[in-house]
Design brief:
By secondary structure, this protein is mainly alpha-helical. The protein has 13 helices and no strands. The protein has one domain. α7 crosses α8 and α9 packs across α10.
């Protein structure tokens, strides 16, 4: 019952955010912004977003192969996009991650190993996201600009450091395990799962490959936003987007709204307004990314309905 309440609460929050956005930014103004935009830049931004998604699928395929899961690229592709489709109906990206981990493990076994690849997929992305934001932050010239993002970047760094110690340090992980009752089933399962995660420390080359792809992805996404901004005749430095977009994407993972919708749009409008960008243009840039996410998710829904759910049924 409590889960249903939180779910509907997040739907309400998502709707409320968009209601407020469109209350202050009339849709007529937004239509005018798109009408006057340079469509070539928008198309190029769309291609970059799709390429970053493709790299994300390649990254997960590398992790799956490293744990001995004989999963074809086609199946990895279907599973990944099907997970995006499920994210449209749940309040966070965790649902999609759980689904793709469950689907692959149902067909190929090795549930703990598959789950570790999903977590490592997200973890390497989180490290890369933080690194891109932090390094780009150092190149900001204006102290007022730095002060605006100092706290969220500090929080990201602390989270990444904590997770790194938790995953890659047995002594630190065992220290954290003390909060659970000795000999409990949960403690035992967490210990076994940590053994699977520790595999990536012992096989560091796999982790570094994942991290390298993650860095490329986390650079491409802000560049996609930057190119979308060119469509609206903005002249902001790409460094600004390399700082802001990782922060916004990290905030979108907080399960406040459905799949981060509304959170991304509101934050981008807020941050860009500090650079003198009109709210309608800030929302227009963000909606380009939202349209990409929805189109990729709907494509995943088509693949799931037509192919992937039958694969899962045949396995069960």
């Amino acid at each position: 019952m409590r889960k249903k309440i939180f779910f509907f609460l997040r739907i309400i929050i998502t709707i409320a955010i968009f209601f407020v956005l469109f209350k202050f930014i009339p849709y007529q103004r937004l239509i005018c912004v798109y009408k006057n935009s340079q469509k070539t830049y928008l198309s190029f931004a769309f291609i970059i977003f799709w390429f970053s998604l493709f790299l994300g699928i390649v990254r997960w395929k590398i992790l799956l192969t490293s744990v001995g899961a004989a999963v074809s690229f086609r199946e990895t592709f279907y599973s990944y996009l099907s997970g995006l489709f499920l994210n449209l109906f749940f309040p966070s990206f965790v649902a999609g991650d759980l689904f793709r981990g469950f689907g692959i493990s149902q067909r190929h076994g090795k549930a703990n190993k598959i789950a570790s690849t999903v977590l490592m997929d997200r973890f390497s992305g989180g490290i890369a996201l933080t690194a891109v934001a932090l390094v780009s932050f150092l190149f900001l010239d204006d102290w007022a600009q730095k002060r605006q993002v100092l706290l969220p970047i500090f929080i990201l760094v602390i989270i990444v450091i904590f997770l790194s110690f938790t995953i890659f340090s047995r002594s630190f992980f065992n220290f954290l395990l003390k909060i659970f009752k000795k000999g409990s089933l949960l403690r035992s399962k967490l210990s076994l799962f940590h053994d699977q995660l520790y595999f990536f420390k012992k096989n560091s080359l796999v982790f570094y490959k994942s991290l390298l792809l993650s860095l490329l992805i986390q650079i491409l996404i802000p560049i996609g936003f930057f190119i979308a901004s060119l469509a609206f005749a903005l002249t902001l430095s790409p460094i600004i987007f390399l700082v802001l977009i990782p922060i916004i994407m990290a905030a979108a993972f907080i399960p406040i709204t459905i799949a981060g919708a509304g959170t991304r749009e509101a934050l981008l409008v807020y941050f860009l307004s500090g650079y003198g960008v009109a709210e309608s243009i800030g929302l227009g840039i963000s909606l380009v990314n939202l349209f990409f996410l929805i189109s990729a998710s709907l494509l995943g829904g088509i693949f799931y309905v037509t192919v992937y759910h039958r694969w899962l049924q045949s396995s069960s």
